[in-house]
Design a protein that fits this description.
Blueprint: H1 11-22, H2 25-37, H3 41-69, H4 73-80, H5 91-124, H6 126-131, H7 134-145, H8 148-167, H9 169-197, H10 202-210, H11 219-231, H12 239-244, H13 253-279, H14 292-301, H15 307-340, H16 345-364, H17 371-374, H18 386-414, H19 417-425, H20 433-458
Helix pairs in contact: 1-9, 1-13, 1-15, 2-13, 3-4, 3-10, 3-11, 3-13, 3-18, 3-20, 4-5, 5-8, 5-15, 5-16, 5-18, 7-14, 8-9, 8-15, 8-16, 9-13, 9-15, 10-13, 11-20, 14-15, 15-16, 16-18, 18-20
Length: 464
């Protein structure tokens, strides 16, 4: 077991790193297209409520478990469950978190690698040429997916960058990267947001996002908003727990949790404003699918002034956001090896990173490069899921919600009220009604909401 534990240098370092973990492709890629798919306004309002009721309470719970235990997920549950109902069985929740981080990073880095290709072709001018012919851009993207060498190469680049940051540790690696990447991310986002104000579709985008029409909101949309509010914050896989274990005792958990949730939500909303302002500026039929980022947005960018510059900035933004998330995923797995296996930081990051890279190659080759991988299916739903789709389904629909459900139950029902309150109040002012509210949410509202997600998966409902 580890005898000492690294710490963030201060509150800002922790918040930037944790916000970086939360802010990723889910904000800049998934949230805009599911908002478009669910008709905007009412969906966004339900999502904001879900962040407050589900996301924020579980966020605080994970950080509490991390800082109190000073351990990675497995060790945290082992230590805090001593003498409690369930005992060592709770370590299974920690192992599930480590497994989730391993699996998610293996395929997440594949998609993240696509942003590298798009940055290059945006700067070289190739993207501009393709964007003037939508069918050509669509064909280019499909060909890229089906190119085994290109998929493995870009996946490898992104994994190398991720391993490189985690290799140097909490202070010199993760925190330093967060302090560079997050300000750059925000700067690019603000530039693009200011640019979007000048587009003809800005007013329509604002109305679409903030004018709720509940007649257009379906039960499936409510479920999707609930699910995304949980997944967007990187909850249920031990990332916030691990980052919380490096948190100084004089720093406020309530303040950090609120700030991280606020920044994550702000980025998602700003991404929607930018993308919808561009989309609504033209009479353009938009495909409501996950490929919107790579097949639709470039076409519309190049209909606007300075399209080449804007598109390059946009994909750089997405790459930065993805990198801050992949760093936290590898840290969850590496911290397990450091704490539980007694490995050094360098060995843990290189070995675990290499293992994840190997699994990522399987996902990279499952888009058509290798037939057996593209037809691989363990979920019994979609015969064309492939390794990539199978891993994504298992992690998003099972690993994360089950992990989040038990984190809420453990913090709300197993950890004592005094232990939770002491952690929340340390580095913060005394809590009264706000602790009572959080306690109610983490014991009842959050587990019930995540339970609905799990039941929907069992019943075969689509919420993604």
């Amino acid at each position: 077991m580890a005898t000492s534990r690294a710490q963030w240098s201060g509150r800002v370092g922790f918040i930037l790193a944790a916000a970086g973990s939360a802010i990723g492709l889910g904000n800049l890629w998934k949230f805009p297209y599911i908002t478009l798919e669910n008709h905007g306004g009412a969906f966004v309002l339900v999502y904001l409520v879900a962040i407050a009721v589900v996301g924020a309470p579980i966020m605080a719970a994970e950080i509490i478990l991390g800082r109190k235990s000073r351990q990675s997920p497995v060790g945290a549950f082992r230590l805090l469950a001593i003498g409690r109902p369930g005992g060592r069985a709770w370590t299974g929740v920690g192992y599930l978190g480590v497994l989730a981080g391993f699996v998610i990073l293996s395929y997440y880095s594949v998609v993240a690698g696509w942003t590298i290709r798009y940055i290059v072709i945006a700067v070289s001018g190739t993207l501009g040429e393709l964007a003037h012919h939508p069918e050509a851009l669509q064909s280019y993207f499909v060909s890229f997916l089906n190119d085994p060498a290109a998929q493995v190469f870009h996946h490898s680049l992104f994994m190398a960058a991720t391993i490189g940051v985690v290799y140097f540790g909490v202070g010199k690696g993760i925190e330093r990267a967060a302090k560079i990447l997050m300000p750059l991310l925000f700067t690019i986002l603000v530039i693009l947001a200011i640019y979007s104000v000048s587009t003809p579709g800005f007013g329509q985008a604002i109305a679409f996002l903030f004018r709720p029409n509940f007649s257009e909101l379906t039960a499936g949309g409510v479920l999707e908003a609930l699910g995304h509010s949980f997944f967007t914050l990187s909850l249920g896989m031990g990332a916030m727990l691990t980052y919380g274990s490096y948190m100084r005792r004089q720093d406020s958990i309530p303040f950090a949790s609120f700030t991280i949730c606020f920044l994550d939500t702000l980025i998602a909303i700003m991404a929607c404003i930018i993308m919808f302002s561009v989309i609504f500026s033209f009479d353009f039929e938009v495909s409501k699918s996950s490929t919107i980022l790579f097949t639709t947005i470039p076409v519309i960018f190049f209909k606007l002034p300075a399209g080449a510059l804007v598109s390059a900035l946009f994909y750089l933004l997405v790459a930065f956001a993805a990198l801050t998330s992949t760093i936290s995923l590898l840290e969850v797995v590496s911290s397990y090896a450091i704490d539980e296996l007694g490995w050094g930081r360098h060995r843990a990051s290189l070995t675990m990173g290499a293992a994840i890279w190997v699994f990522g190659v399987l996902s990279a080759l499952s888009f058509g490069g290798v037939d057996v991988l593209s037809r691989f299916n363990l979920i019994g739903r979609d015969s064309t899921a492939g390794v990539f789709g199978t891993f994504d389904y298992l992690a998003s629909n099972w690993f994360l919600p089950v992990g989040g459900f038990f984190i809420a139950l453990f913090t709300g029902w197993i950890l004592t009220s005094k232990a939770s309150r002491d952690e929340l109040e340390e580095g913060h002012a005394s809590l009264s009604w706000s602790f009572t509210m959080w306690r109610f949410l983490i014991r009842f509202a959050a587990p019930a909401a995540v339970g609905v997600i799990i039941v929907s998966v069992i019943l075969g409902a689509e919420y993604q």
